[in-house]
Specification:
Layout (H helix, E strand, L loop, with lengths): L6 H13 L10 E3 L7 H12 L4 E5 L8 E6 L4 E6 L5 E5 L14 E3 L3 E2 L6 E2 L5 E3 L3 H4 L11 E2 L1 E4 L2 E4 L9 H16 L4 E11 L3 H7 L6 H4 L14 E4 L4 E6 L20 E7 L3 E5 L4 E8 L7 E10 L1 H4 L3 H34 L7 E3 L4 H23 L1
Antiparallel strand pairs: 1-20, 2-12, 3-4, 3-6, 4-5, 5-10, 7-8, 8-9, 11-12, 13-19, 14-15, 15-16, 16-17, 17-18, 18-19
């Protein structure tokens, strides 16, 4: 597996693999059971020991650019309200009024100086403090400082907003990413880009089934013959395994001119797609002129359901060399193409896979050595669950 090489060298490594009709490979074929995608007990462990323990991405910072901007997110353990603060930081709260538990904010996004409960009109400031108890003269004595919104750990880093879905946890994104991936993300300056558009889709599939599909270079020719299969080579990746995270380069077919010709010092960036897997549930794709972020979250109770979110992250208009109209037109077209592939090709296949995996006699399954990013994903999620079980047993 490729490690610690400059980008052009890694691209040339992928070109060599393509010439040899091979790919980087994992140590061995690994088996797994279909119950990993249907078992309620395992699903609960994943919610607690993965999402309740480690940071995951919930938004790009540009989605809450101004003070008092907010987004709401259904996480595996909590409904969250994420708010930009006056000092520019971000905070995340359980989206629930501390009086009788009504949902505090129903909108997916917006801007508000006060968050007011629709049930009895208790209200909260954007920093989570309890602002108003309606008709407080009749309600009784309440220590307001103890009844603000429940905060969960949140941090903004590398342009993204990260949370740990557990009010009793702490967050340190740099430590979680590790020095390699933290440096990689820093080099992209994604905080200077904007999220052109974000979309979320609730699907009848396990979250790991969804994540697996977007780490897989083995299926491109077969599942996407008329779209991505025409552009990207199948089953060829040059990968860097960082332990928790990985990234890999997949050559586009435009690189074929160099199969017999030495590219010399010519930059080859436009001839590849580079995928970053950020444990536990994000795929960041680096395209020649933009990024896509795909995130996959378990349903709060049902192991056969999940939510996928897609974000198109692009240069700001003023940095793009385009006027506003052309910028809007190009990225809208790009977004529409991405949605068409998801809804026409990926989602139908994954829905039928989830249905098949529910068969009582499905039998054991296999991950090949060539499915290396999927192997990393499974290895690391298993480690997190095993660590959570061990900690629970010791407590």
């Amino acid at each position: 597996m490729t490690t610690s090489l400059p980008r052009q060298d890694r691209i040339r490594r992928a070109l060599d693999l393509l010439r040899g009709e091979t790919t980087d490979k994992f140590d061995e074929v690994v088996d797994f059971e279909p119950g990993e995608f249907t078992d309620p007990a395992l699903a609960q462990e994943e919610r607690d020991y993965i999402f309740g323990t480690v940071p995951s991405i919930v938004a790009h910072g540009s989605e809450i650019a101004r003070p008092n901007d907010f987004v709401t997110v259904q996480m595996p353990r909590n409904n969250l309200l994420i708010v930009r603060q006056k000092d520019g930081s971000v905070k995340a709260f359980v989206n629930l009024c501390r009086h009788r538990g009504a949902m505090l904010e129903e909108c997916e996004s917006g801007r508000s100086r006060i968050f007011s409960c629709p049930y009895h009109r208790w209200s909260y400031d954007p920093d989570g403090s309890l602002r108003t108890i309606t008709r407080d003269a009749t309600f009784g004595d309440v220590e307001r400082s103890e009844h603000g919104l429940i905060e969960v750990p949140a941090e903004e880093r590398h342009g993204f907003v990260w949370v740990v879905d557990n009010a009793h946890a702490t967050i340190d994104v740099a430590s979680w990413l590790g020095p390699e991936m933290d440096t990689i993300l820093s080099s992209y300056h994604l905080e200077d880009s904007v999220c052109f558009k974000a979309g979320g889709f609730n699907e009848p599939t396990n979250w790991k089934l969804m994540q697996d599909a977007f780490l897989d270079a083995y299926h491109v020719q077969y599942a996407h013959p008329n779209t991505a299969g025409k552009i990207i080579h199948t089953n060829v990746v040059a990968i860097e395994d960082f332990g928790r995270h990985c990234r890999f380069i997949a050559p586009r077919k435009s690189i074929d001119r160099y199969l017999e010709e030495d590219p010399g010092n010519s930059p080859l960036d436009k001839h590849v797609t580079e995928t970053h897997f950020l444990l536990p549930n994000s795929t960041l794709l680096r395209q020649p002129d933009h990024f896509q972020l795909l995130t996959f979250r378990p349903h709060p109770t049902d192991p056969t359901r999940s939510r996928m979110e897609q974000r198109l992250i692009v240069p700001r208009v003023e940095d793009s060399g385009m006027d506003e109209a052309r910028w809007q037109r190009i990225w809208t077209k790009n977004w529409d193409i991405l949605l068409a592939v998801l809804h026409n090709e990926d989602f139908p296949l994954l829905r039928s896979s989830q249905k098949a995996l529910g068969s009582a006699d499905a039998g054991g399954m296999l991950l090949g050595r060539n499915e290396v990013a999927n192997q990393v994903f499974r290895r690391e999620t298993r480690r997190l669950v095993a660590a959570g079980r061990a900690a629970a047993a010791d407590s």
